[in-house]
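idk why but the lab printer keeps eating my pages so im just putting this in chat instead. protein + adenosine-5'-triphosphate:
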Amino acid sequence: MQDTAVKKQSKDLLLEVNNLCVDYFASNGAVHAVRDVSFVLRRGEILGLAGESGCGKSTLAYAISRLLRPPAYITGGQVLYYPRGHEGGATAAVQSKLPKKGRLTGSNGDEAIDVLQLSPSELRAFRWSEVSIVFQSAMNALNPVMSVGDQIIDVLKAHRPDMGPNQRKKRAIELLNLVGIASDRLNSYPHELSGGMRQRAVIAIALALNPELIIMDEPTTALDVVVQREILQLISDLCREFNTALLFITHDLSLLLELSDQIAIMYAGKMVEKASSVAIYDHPRHPYSHGLLNAFPNLHGPIRKMVGIPGSPPDLRFIPSGCPFRERCPLAFEACSEVVPQLQPASLENQQQLAACHLYDRKFRPQGAPSAAEVAGAYESLIEGSRA
Ligand SMILES: Nc1ncnc2c1ncn2[C@@H]1O[C@H](COP(=O)(O)OP(=O)(O)OP(=O)(O)O)[C@@H](O)[C@H]1O
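predcted complex ->
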């Protein structure tokens, strides 16, 4: 029974990122923006990526979608994409543009595409039909001199040559309705729509070709809180309805708690914790995750005392030895400046909650992991100390 379950789970793999590294070769030194990041994303899963500004979230998203431009270079690692089977909803025209030759065998034994090796034409097919990308301030990226309907129809024209004009128009109306925009807005121009509606139109375009994965980088930051929540709910409902996986990036961890199945937390280019949203909310293990969780107001759950994290992240050109968070960590000890911690299960009870922190490694801390209260207390003392 268990074997079948494990096999089925691994069959659901959609994206596998292995030891990805990205540097910006700036004139004043190489900025190590993404450092040895590994994670998997399953079909239909919503993964939230959080971390302070500058920790490498956008760079990671650009690297996965092969949108990096010099001076950014991928200096190591692998991005594997597991294409859907024949039963999937993709159009045959689009499927055929993905390479058949040179496929690798992924970690679950299935055929995988090596995204970092795709040719420009394969990349175009991959980006629209398999992966849609919505980047920061996307709602201002709509073409101001084209109606929203025509912008959707344009995407269909380019990628669905099998569709006739009537089918394309019908699909554009269907997509607008899906995101809560009435059909009579088909001929509206972006300036005739509110910010929230423009963002909905962008989501409709992202969904146009039934992608398997949508990557969204801070898509709602320009909106007020109420509209932001409506849009997040819409995104989550649509992803659940179509079993679309979502990689959602924000610096606001509280937004991710409701939206995501899994949350990954980045600090100074590294992934420092990955777990289900419930586990992160109930008991964040990495001291950085704890600090981040208490740095934002939360609309639900018990009231938490907002404390913030004193100090600032390191310059990514000169990353300190050992744990990159140690200089701000209230519980850092000797090993933290000597050994780089690796992501590993943080507790025996939950092997799926991974943290890159020596506090959870018996080799370095034989007395066992600190309790949540201990981490909170250590933060309070740190803050008191920084005020004194
Ligand atoms: N063109 C560039 N040249 C040099 N360094 C860069 C360049 N673009 C980004 N960086 C640096 O790379 C690091 C990661 O940036 P990135 O934008 O990926 O972070 P982020 O977590 O997405 O931040 P934000 O939430 O502010 O978008 C930062 O330290 C940033 O200063």
